[in-house]
Fold Xyloglucan 6-xylosyltransferase.
Amino acid sequence: MGHEKKRGGGTNQTLPTTTTTTTTARRTSIPRGRQISKTFNNLKITILCGFVTILVLRGTIGVGNLTGGSSSSEAKKVIEDTNRIIAEIRSDSDPNEIEVYLNTNDTYSLGPKIKNWNEEREIWLQTHPQFPRTVNNKPRMLLVTGSPPNPCDNPIGDHYLLKSIKNKIDYCRIHGIEIVYNMAHLDRELAGYWAKLPLIRRLMLSHPEVEWIWWMDSDALFTDMVFEIPVRKYDGFNLVVHGYPDLMFNQNSWIALNTGSFLFRNCQWSLDLLDAWAPMGPKGPIRDEAGKVLTANLKGRPAFEADDQSALIYLLISKKDEWMDKVFLENSYYLHGYWAGLVDRYEEMIDKYHPGLGDERWPFVTHFVGCKPCGSYGDYPVERCLSSMERAFNFADNQVLNLYGFRHKALLSPKIKRIRNETVKPLEYVDQFDIRRPPVQKDDKLHNL
Amino acid sequence: MGHEKKRGGGTNQTLPTTTTTTTTARRTSIPRGRQISKTFNNLKITILCGFVTILVLRGTIGVGNLTGGSSSSEAKKVIEDTNRIIAEIRSDSDPNEIEVYLNTNDTYSLGPKIKNWNEEREIWLQTHPQFPRTVNNKPRMLLVTGSPPNPCDNPIGDHYLLKSIKNKIDYCRIHGIEIVYNMAHLDRELAGYWAKLPLIRRLMLSHPEVEWIWWMDSDALFTDMVFEIPVRKYDGFNLVVHGYPDLMFNQNSWIALNTGSFLFRNCQWSLDLLDAWAPMGPKGPIRDEAGKVLTANLKGRPAFEADDQSALIYLLISKKDEWMDKVFLENSYYLHGYWAGLVDRYEEMIDKYHPGLGDERWPFVTHFVGCKPCGSYGDYPVERCLSSMERAFNFADNQVLNLYGFRHKALLSPKIKRIRNETVKPLEYVDQFDIRRPPVQKDDKLHNL
């Protein structure tokens, strides 16, 4: 406001100034220009406030609801309710439970030392003839796989876990192998990739009738439904794992073998190996320190905590004389087949070869190392991984559907098409196309694959 | 601005006014009050604009990125890539492929009429002794289940499909039953709940060694891991389904039986029943019209297209004399157990009873009718369904983990705890706790459940 001159009498009387008049006018009437200016300012602020309000509302309740759409809000509610219950299930941790890590001085053990497992097991088998150690004249085998008990971080992960177990169910049904799908953490210290160790031990001791425990990762798929593991080849061995002697003993490479798919004989030696393998596993300082040792000693290994694969390589290299006489490093077929070099060749394989070979011509197992569909971040582009996994799944599924007269329209297609008409003599096709039966004419049987 | 008086000479000369001075001052100096006011206005607008900018940016690139975090944008990219490849896989339909529905004049057939299946199958079994019709002195059984080939609309759906098949794998391993998990649409006309018909037929004809085909929905879980189907009770029957004669024949109720879990003997009669059952199934006008017939004739049935369950009820009611002599309506145990009345009683069951009963005291199967975790909209609140399914799964899992010395911390918890210490004599527990073996002392074996 202006300066108000003194009114009335006094020594310094001056004429009333316009300022005074202006002040009075401000009280009674605002000059038009300023009125417009003020209105304009207010309008600007009003518009801005309204805009802010819309943005905030949009973020909270959704544009769809502003325009009256209800299906997207219902679906959203389903998702919210789902997330709420999943969060509740996940957060069941005891508030008093503190994560305690073993330190490097502590000794970790998978369990009390068992020293006479071979003898005990043999006696048990003799006294329990109703649980033979062979199935269809083959040593009894138990395939073990699994995944964490909670939903995957990436929703598509659960879908591919489902397809992966279906794939394993198919192979195991055809070949008379039992399956254990583990979704429990048996040992708090040995979590993550190490979880297979306490699991294998527990299963060996609980299933004495089983001759071979076959661990297989959830991201490994069977792609040769005909091929069978040549178990007789391993009569003198107790651990069969895909690997390369040169990479192991000449190069000390951290990928000299792969623990995504391997066989453990159910025997004392295996229990002892598990005991020797486990010490690098307990999470926390032990695993971290062990990781440094492994990185320092294994060629190409990045710096990260100890993983079971590197630890096994290190153990077998450093204690070669103690263990290697019973370890078979298999690479004549793909007990583990690294996916990147295989998935683009499926059409070529169908064209040139047939199931039953198990090697680079028709891989036994295609293993999606590094894809991690269950987690948030894999080592490869998501699209590349998912489309490749879909192709591998369908490539295998075609071999199963063949008995039923179907195949997938394309390797990337979930849809199937008929390749044989229905008949009033279905048993002729059973004899011809069931994998479990010796082929009548090898070419005919496999022609449609 | 003020009014500027004329300067200099002229008739209306007046003293220069303060206004003029003010104007000049405005050009050269704004009165302090108005300066503050103007500044304040500008400040308000600046703040609002800044706020709007932040909101818009937040909506586009995420707060995390504003603060330097990259993980949320990476995760978002993973989701986008995932959705893109899934859309590509889903959209593999042939653009030239037009959905053609059979009309009500057309005749639908599951396949060419087979008339001598019993004889053909018998000859085959005699000539294929390596594929016996019994397993462990029990008729050979094949459990059939499945789900669509595409990811679930609700992401959590795939996780519960995974848990459901793990549950079935456990039961079937313990009881020597093979599993087929179907993810293919064998017949375009009979899609949805009708898909089990062509699937059952195809499996019967492809697996002559199988005596019983057991269809089980993906939303049905085994909750009694000890109970076995008393197959000898059904020696004179070919279809075993959970149902109530009173509801069927006195009330014509549309829920008189449940096709979520039933057994079909592999025989000519079953092929004939499938042929008689299928005609209401082809989607389109046939299924719609059939739905009206069913709603008109079955008590309590809402108006919707024909479903396989209602169609079977209608068939058995209207052709009672033709079929019912070979149909066993079982309700002495829960071959199908409606979940809502069971899931809240699990703790009470654990307290009072033990596995092996299979009935309301310890239900054989808990069936989550109406929950539809794979779809977007079930008939019950999502949280109620998911938490109940989690409880049922863990209730069953406890019975499996018992052999290994573990149980879940609570029925809603994925975490497990040890209930028996490791021992150097593991085979003692095997004898005591393995479900497959007769209990040493019934109370001890089941105590920890």
